[in-house]
Amino acid sequence: MPASVALLDAQTVNQIAAGEVVERPSSVVKELIENALDAAATRIEITVESGGRERIRVADDGHGMSPDDAILALERHATSKIRSADDLLQVTSLGFRGEALPSIASVSRLTLITGQGEAGRTVIVTRFGSKEDPRSVAGDRGTEVIVEDLFENTPARLKFLKGDATESSSIAETVAKYAIAHPSVAFVLRFGQSESIRTTGTGDLIEAIGGVWGSELARNLIPIESNSSGIEVRGFVSPPHITKPNRAFQQFIVNGRPVRSRTLYASIDAAFRSLTPERRYPVVVLQLNLDPADVDINVSPTKSEIKFRREGAAFEAIRLAVKSSLMENGIMPSVAAAFVPTTAAVGGSTVSSPALLEPIAQTVRDLFDERAPMDPVQAVKYPFLDLLDGLQILGQVLDTFIVASTDRGLVIIDQHVAHERILYEYLCGLKEGAPIERQGLLEPQVISFDRPGAIALAEHLEDLRAIGFELEKFGVTDFAVRAIPGALSDKGAIPILKDIAEELVATGGKSGLQDARHRIWITAACRMAVKAGDVLADREMEQLVRELAETENPYLCPHGRPITLTFTYDELLRRFKRT
User: Fold this and answer.
1) So what's the architecture of 330-579 in CATH?
2) Which of its termini does the chain have fewer beta carbons within 10 Å around, N or C?
3) What is the mean pLDDT of the chain?
């Protein structure tokens, strides 16, 4: 006979809830930081031992709790943030469910020490959900929570924790998000006696970013400020030549809450689609302020994912804000940090210009080496068109780089990637939404996909045809590829097709197709552009530079390689010790 239905005891219910709220030590830190911020703390200190499994201490100077509230706070669904389901539509606090403290207490040895000032502090100790009688101690206003022996009573959960280094890294990432999201709060994170993060709490966002990600990176960020469709967007973004290999340096704060959202990531990708290297990501910190009723924060147990009531408006507000800022703050890589004057000629190189160019040749070769890291390059802020005032072509270096003088200084341009950028934007402008030229295969190529990918492709055969792919169903999960985009080889086309299938499955839409369209344009522009080693006449070089100045992004080619470097006259005089 099946077991009869029975109510679970409170301890079991708490442990089930803890499995949703407290996944790992960083989850504990997150929940306790949110409680501190909701208590109007101006300073939060976090100390961690052994990756958080042995001990986590979070102390704040917030308004604290009375003895009665402290006792009640350890009960499930006891909260001061909301009173009914209707309040969920206007939640402005970070926490609101009343699950964090009891969930943490059910899987650890937890000590809560809290007070509101003159009356001292209340101390409540729990042992895996079992509470001891509260006691009073002297102390100032604020709250301190100590969590020890995390998951000791749930060995199955404990064994799934990673090593101390991995768990510590996750904790640091969590603290970093809240430190950036709340620059008016001073954060300190220590692992044992070693300090990892410290911010001042002055309210200066760029200072908070510097305290977390480093001052050098923070100094190079571009400010963003806009207000569109009732969505205020403020923050900072990196120039196109400063990118990262993943999204770890992309942070979004919606009404004070660090969040994840496909809409937000997609909006940044759309703004940077033609600006950054493929599969590279800009540094982004964006604060969005909008009506709480337009955001659903009750999507996941961790409250880290959200949904916008008006997804399209949020997408466009961010895309336009970021793109406008990038265009208004024309930023061009500068060679000042790397240039070292030399009188040595470049052996075996072709220099079709006066001897002035010889000291620059090797530096140019090094700077445009696509294997070299791009992040350390300094940046000069001014619109590209200003650089064309007084333009005079001096010649070519290595039959690859155009060197010119302007009213501001010397300009060095990679002719191939400059022409590639011009052609890419030409293709984008004339062929947006139009079919791409197809090339039929002599023999159809049969490609297998997983079932979700096959279903997604089958639903978008006409869209695929519009970007140059002609496919025919060939079984349950196989397709016969009969034609590919004319700009691609069959070896290059098939990986793109597989990427499209994965993206369609992931997004449930057409973003994969749009990305593929741009990748095809990139390949076509690269094949059509003048090559390194092509000798150009002065008039051809001048025409290329002027056409480059009219592009949307004269700084990076579609693949992400630098097009233009500058050397101002002030820098030149300083290097030769004439100032």
Assistant:
1) 2-Layer Sandwich (3.30)
2) N
3) 78
